[in-house]
Amino acid sequence: MTGLAKTLTVGQAIGLAITTVVGSGLLVLPGIAYQQVGGAAVYAWLLNALLVVPLLIIFAYLGANFPSAGGVAGFVQAAFSRPIAAATEALLLGTFLMGGPAIAVTGGNYFAAAVGGGRLSTLFASLAIISFAGYVNYQGVKMSGRVQQFLAFFLVGLLASVAIATLVFGNMNVGTGIVPLSQLSTTFPVLATLFFAFTGFEMLSFTSEEYRNPKRDFPVAVGVSFIIVVALYITIALAVQFTLPPNDTSLATAPIVAMLTSIFGKTSGQIVALIGVVIVTTNLIGGSWASSRLVFASAREGLLPEWLSQIEPHSQIPRVAVAWTMFAFAIATIINFLGILPLSLLFGLAGQGFFAVNALSVIAYLKLTRKWWQKLVGGFTLILVVAIMGTFSWGLVFVLGLMLLGFMGNKVRQNSVISSRAK
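Structure tokens predicted for Amino acid permease:
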């Protein structure tokens, strides 16, 4: 059997989406935006929410109509050909290999900050987070989905409570508040930065093969999780810009720490550090789920060794892919500890890879749809994504290099199959 078990419910998928999107950036980006554009920052969050809607429409359509464990690569294969899909798979594999360890190391840093530890504490905590995420996913969709569902709503409730408590008990006269709508144009410098907070929905596409009814459930999961995430972002943004001065030095590093400190004092820093560990851990559970499904799908299609596509017969879980995915994350984390792959480089390459993946998704959508309004949505979204990709500079080498590697790898496999058949 080569198909995955169809056990994923809408509630579990919503939890997965939330924990995949709401990552460590939420602990920093609200402060950075407020620091740069002041009381207009909340408008930047709203504009980004509007800008990402067409992209979500595209993912909802593709996930509902072309469900595949390969996610975006599956969409590209349905639209074009296996060689182009293989190039997409290689891009995704390289992107996940950068992003997964970056998430884990961020969690390790937060843990070290909470306990006052050093670099070794960061390393061991990072590896522990990877191990926990791997264990949850190794148990399969039922356990992973339940954990994600619980942690997602716990996380949203916790962060929303922090923001609301700040608005209720904080000094509302300290911040700048909300500037008039006429100053909307001042938000433009931070739009691209805040767009990173909305990436992650594309990873939900890797779970589309495991829905009981993907055509109905996938769009619902995307839509509901989007509304919850946007509401959380806006609440925190308002709390920051109403209760903190724009010249607060902690805005660029830990705005939520500053929010809690203004109410509960300095000891709240450890609380926020532990919240950061929870955020990062849940984020990695979702990311490693998507990564392992990509490894499984790539092996099933022939780009990776065939034994990585094994499914445990009783549970129908790709446990071999899960185990090797987490092992790869652990190796990359150790390489980061040795100073070879800095955290900033891991995040930078992962972010650029995901933007390129978004562009490929939109191109596949344009090829697979027929209605004029769908073409219009796809064209507008492609312009937006390509415009942001224009800032990558040398990062495009990483993107194109991985795609070329996947394309050539597929070519080599095809030639090998033809040669074996000829014998």
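Residues 72 and 361 are 6 Å apart (CA to CA).
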